[in-house]
Amino acid sequence: EAKATEEMLNQRMSAEIKAIDEHWNEKISKMSSQQTQSISGKVPLLNQTVNELSNQPRKSSKFATPKNRPAEHACEKIRKDLRSIGLTYITGTPIYYFWLYTPKKNRNFCNGALIDKRFVLTLSDCFLPDTFIEVKLSFSSGPKGIKAIHRHPDYSSETASLHNIGLIELDSDVDYAHDLYPVCLYTSQLNPKILKNRYSELQIVADTECGKKYTSTEVCVRNLKHGSVSSGEPIYVEEIEYPIYKLFGLVGKKSYDRKPYWIGKVFDHLDF
């Protein structure tokens, strides 16, 4: 009897296990079928979306990566142009001042930087009044005619500390020489530890040392050596890579005797 009972229980257990297996196999089969239908329905739509996106013209990013910025391409062209005239070793800082002439030969002295064969970067303040027709970049070169003056679109003389940057477009190319060559623009968002003007190294200090800050593009600095600075004067980053100097910013207002002063970064205006 015991043996018969054991056989009966084994048969019943086997039947139950078989029924459970069949039930779950059927359920899994249905689930797999539904997933397959779902996936087969979604994949073509996804492919269509990807294809549509890939066929659409790409929109430019507001913040281009450094290597894609026009300023980086311009710097590479500057390197080639300088090497082509035999200027392979830089001994001094690029030009930092120029004269603007009116039709009556009245002139205005300004600070700024040559950044291309046809463009000079300076403060928009320098263009007041805007009757200038010529610019002279060095003692050894003749004057160049002005094709156009480009102020920052958001610049206002009433709030001169904001967007105080502009370009002078020349009507002909500047002939580069050992004492007249352009400077590349600094394209990193990070502030370097040490900056430089034509006389001294500079140290970035706390904003509170310069007083009220009008815009996030301003950086407070102090000369490490004695010496005054003038508004619009270029501030450089010195790098190992040729041509060594890159333009970090322009002095906002003149300062004397190592007093801290504001400079406006060019990085925030690279797409201007």
From TrEMBL:
Transmembrane segments: none annotated. Residues 107-188 form the Peptidase S1 domain. One of its GO terms (biological process) is proteolysis. Signal peptide: none annotated. InterPro entries: CLIP_Serine_Protease (IPR051333), Peptidase_S1_PA (IPR009003), Trypsin_dom (IPR001254). GO terms for molecular function: serine-type endopeptidase activity. Gene3D superfamilies: 2.40.10.120. PANTHER family: PEPTIDASE S1 DOMAIN-CONTAINING PROTEIN, PTHR24260. This is Ovochymase-2. The lineage of its organism: Eukaryota, Metazoa, Ecdysozoa, Arthropoda, Hexapoda.
